[in-house]
C-alpha cells in the first residue's frame, strides 16, 4: 500500500471540501462543500468554510445519516484514491467508533423488531379479501 503523497510538502494548500472528498466521506466535492456550509462537517468543533485548510492533527467531526465520525487528520491529499489509500488520511477516535457502533446496533434492533409489510397480496389473496368484505 502506498502512502498518499503529502500535499503540504509540495507547498499546495488543500481545501477542506477537497480533503473530505479525497478521504471518501463524500462522493463529490459539491456534496462535501454543502455539508460544510450546513455545519455537518467541522474542524475542531468550529464551523468553517469549504476553503479552510485542515492541518495534520486537527479533529474533524462529520455527521451523515444519523451517524457521527470524529477523526484526526493524519495526512493531506488532493487526490481521490481507493479506500485503502483514503484510510491513511485519517484515524477515527476510539470513542467515536464505539458510539457509532452502538447506534448502528440500535438501528438494526429497531429495524428487526419493526413490523414488516408482506408486500402486495397475490391474486388469490385479493379474491379472498374481496369475498370476505362483500359477505352480507
Q: Could you walk me through the main structural features you see in this protein, from its secondary elements to its overall organization?
A:
- The model has no long low-confidence stretch (mean pLDDT 90).
- The chain has a domain at 1-95: Structural Genomics Hypothetical 15.5 Kd Protein In mrcA-pckA Intergenic Region, Chain A (Roll), CATH 3.10.290.
- The termini are far apart.
- A hairpin with a 2-residue loop joins strand 2 (59-64) and strand 3 (67-73).
- The chain has five helices and four strands; from the N terminus they run H-H-E-E-E-H-E-H-H.
- The protein has a four-stranded antiparallel sheet.
- By secondary structure, it is an alpha+beta fold.
- 39% of the residues lie in helices and 14% in strands.
- It is elongated.
CATH topology of the domain at 1-95: Structural Genomics Hypothetical 15.5 Kd Protein In mrcA-pckA Intergenic Region, Chain A
Secondary-structure-based class equals alpha+beta
Distance from first to last alpha carbon: 74 Å
The portion of residues assigned to helices is: 25-40%
Largest sheet: 4 strands, antiparallel
Rounded mean pLDDT is: 90
* Spatial order of strands in the largest sheet: 1-2-3-4
The number of helical elements comes to 5
Envelope shape? elongated
Low-confidence stretches: none
Report the CATH superfamily of the domain at 1-95.
Answer: RNA-binding S4 domain
Number of strands: 4
Gyration radius from CA atoms, angstroms = 23 Å
- Give the H and E element order: HHEEEHEHH
